[in-house]
Specification:
The chain contains seven helices and nine strands. The protein is of the alpha/beta class and 215 residues long. The structure holds adenosine-5'-diphosphate and magnesium ion.
């Protein structure tokens, strides 16, 4: 057993995922072997439709592989184990921004102070509003805050800066780095250069195939 085998929190081994569209079969993820280790910030970039979200869904266990095996050593049903910022954000509409951020605290211990995290993401003043009463960028930062307050063992973020300006991208990036430095495994799908530059490891997704850049 290698060091990385021992350390892996989630591992995909030869994993593929196919979708049928009429007569056509799309191979969204093709024979990918990939693992997430504690303290590492991993970025997966690649064009739209290349399979990034499907790869994250396989890591999350939201989708099952058609081939290959996923193994995990974290409790993936708890926000302390596995937290996510989905591409569609997944905020609860009838809960306020503040309630959404504190939501993981219902069943888990919160490690970070929700008010402080919201302030650092520039949404502290919106705590009493409902998500629909805020901008898409603010909703995205709410989803980021919710995912990091438990300081999860694994943090999965899908295009976390897609609705952000420079200042707010910096705020998000800074927190992602802090979470990784505190020991979490962080994986981000993005084509935002401002995010790829902070990666400890960078991969490129092309038509479902995962390669290190320049490989
Ligand atoms: P990315 O996140 O890089 O934009 P996705 O993982 O969302 O890429 O999609 C990869 C490919 O798989 C695309 O061709 C997409 O249309 C297809 N795909 C993703 N989800 C489904 C689905 N549920 N049904 C059919 N095709 C899908
Ligand atoms: Mg996507």
């Amino acid at each position: 057993m290698t060091t990385s085998d021992r350390a892996a929190l989630i591992r995909l081994d030869g994993v593929s995922r196919r979708f049928r569209r009429g007569a056509e079969t799309v191979v969204a993820v093709a024979d990918v072997t990939f693992e997430l280790a504690p303290g590492e910030l991993t970025v997966v970039s690649g064009p739209s439709g290349s399979g990034k979200t499907t790869l994250l869904n396989l890591l999350l266990g939201w989708e099952q592989p058609d081939d290959g095996v996923r193994t995990t050593s974290v409790p993936t049903d708890r926000w302390t184990g596995l937290a996510v910022v989905p591409q569609q954000l997944g905020l609860i509409d009838h809960c306020t921004v503040g309630e959404n951020v504190r939501l993981p605290g219902r069943a888990n211990e919160l490690v970070l102070d929700p008010a402080e995290v919201m302030d650092r993401l520039g949404i502290g003043h919106l705590a009493e509003r409902f998500p629909q009463e805020t901008s898409l960028g603010e909703q995205q930062r709410t989803a980021v805050a919710r995912a990091i307050v438990t300081r999860p063992r694994v943090l999965v973020v899908d295009e976390p800066t897609s609705h952000q300006d420079e200042r707010n991208t910096e705020r998000i990036v800074e927190l992602l780095v802090e979470v990784a430095r505190s020991g979490s495994a962080v994986v981000a799908a993005t084509h935002d250069e401002r995010v790829t530059t902070i990666a400890d490891r960078r991969f490129e997704m092309r038509d479902g195939h995962l390669t290190p850049p320049n490989a």
